[in-house]
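Bug #77: duplicate submission created two jobs. Keeping one. Sequence:
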Amino acid sequence: MIVIVGLGNPGAKYKNTYHNVGFMIADSLAKKLKVKFTKTECDAKTLKANYKGTDFVIAKPETFMNLSGNAVKQLVKKYDCDVSNELMICYDDVDLPVGNTRLRAEGSAGSHNGMRNIVAELNTTEFKRLRVGIKNEKIKNKEIELIDLVLSKVDYEDKENLEKGIDKASDALIRFIEGVDIQRISETVNKN
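Kept job's structure:
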């Protein structure tokens, strides 16, 4: 079973913050596929649907970012997900310029605490990840601390590029559900 997890922090306080890019990707995908989040299970808001004959789950963990691995581990177990082939984690990346996208078949957690927790809980780095950049001028020029950036609302000047990246990411996820080879999807997604 394909399981797509968008990372973020739950609650109105964190809505539209840079750290909730994963939730925004999950919402964009759900909107494009005309499906709605209907359940809360495995410490996550979820939806289960079928697209062109393929069953999939989209999830937004209700744990806070640093404990995302708890929800991911439960989802993988419940849906008998083949971690290296069927799991996709979507999240923000402060090392990529705002709106730039990257898709990788595996890799380290980098500096992202949510990803570190997922790697620790699953005990592997061999799962797919789709990142959208949030590195803006403020962080580049060291005008703001990382923690303050990720928990702040998206700046007006970043909004358009971020939305383009999220749109590109959700299109890539549709191709992933369709069974397109990850390398072929990467060729499109990783061009910015």
